[in-house]
Hints:
Blueprint: E1 2-5, E2 7-12, H1 25-34, E3 37-42, H2 53-66, E4 70-73, E5 75-76, H3 82-85, E6 95-98, H4 111-120, E7 127-130, H5 134-145, E8 150-152, H6 158-169, E9 174-178, H7 180-184, H8 192-195, H9 204-212, E10 219-220, H10 229-232, H11 247-256, H12 262-276, E11 286-296, E12 315-325, E13 328-332, E14 335-336
Parallel strand pairs: 2-3, 3-4, 5-6, 6-7, 7-8, 8-9, 9-10
Antiparallel strand pairs: 1-11, 11-12, 12-13, 13-14
Bound molecules: N-carbamoyl-L-aspartate and zinc ion (2 copies).
Amino acid sequence: MITLPGLIDPHAHLREPGATHKEDWDSGTTAALAGGFTQVLAMPNTQPPVTDGDTLALALTAARYKARCDYAQYLGAGPHNMDELAPLADRSAGLKIYLDQTYGELRLNDMGLCLAHFARWPRHMPIVAHAEGRSLAAVILLSALYDRPLHLAHVSRREEILLIRAARQRGMKVTCEVTPHHLFLTQNDLSSGRGEVRPRLATAADRDALWGKLEVIDCFATDHAPHTLAEKDGPNPPPGFPGLETALPLFLTAVSEGRLTMDDLIRRMATNPRRIFNLPEQAETWIEVLPDESWEIRAENTLTRCAWTPFEGWQVRGRLRRVVLRGSEVFRQGQILAPMGTGKNIREGRVENRE
Length: 355
Ligand code: NCD
Ligand code: ZN
Ligand code: ZN
């Protein structure tokens, strides 16, 4: 049995408000604990999206009653809300900017609007971008021009990881995350509807380039994006995979195969996200793992509401046994012990403004 710090997922879609048939603050944070995560940062592409004080309050009220692990909520960059967001920044996980088409209507097509967000958002709070290919190059330029640290979500291609490495070698303040599905799956692995995800699953060469440039990858983020099987197998399959409950066993398997060290895992799933997103240490919080236990991933044993996984039937090695959050046992051998409302808003009580 080995002990690791509570894991941090800087990129999860918990779907509340608006799509609680896919997930809500209860089921999403339950899945988080069952995956070894004690802090999750929730994305703003809900219905309505979290783009102002009212919608932030809506999401945080649901979270306060339901969350079973600690959390913070992102704000979404829209075409008209740059002035409204700055005063809310300290109460958020950070600002999320969508530069490419994905699930939900939050998207900034106009470079001028994007630039206005960079100019107004407070410098000490994180900015995260969904930016693929050429959008990635554009947003790196904006971060350099405005001297704002930038975190790049779900990097998936060789050209992107090379671009980020080059930017970093020139001293630019960019960090990035990669998802388990872009590290373990390729475009040949899933049938069309279920395989829909943004960024799309890439080639084996892209996947291998990510593993080959591991030193450029700051975080492993799940991009837990639950949609029901009926939706995935239906006429307009929405993009996204659940990931909270499968990330740790997949990476523990990689450790057992010698593709990753345990230290590599801890840095990318705890230490680096804590530093990049300025998250507090959680007192008396840890997870316990059985590194040699082999088992099979099966959706029927998961706790996410979406009830499927792109890793169905995968044999993995390494199993979460127990999670302790602030001194209380919150998960043990498949059972969630934390009541709803156990989770704390990571940003609450933070009235500082360091600018
Ligand atoms: C995400 C979702 O479903 O909210 N989907 C996805 O394919 N990754 C949106 C996103 O992260 O881009
Ligand atoms: Zn995205
Ligand atoms: Zn996402």
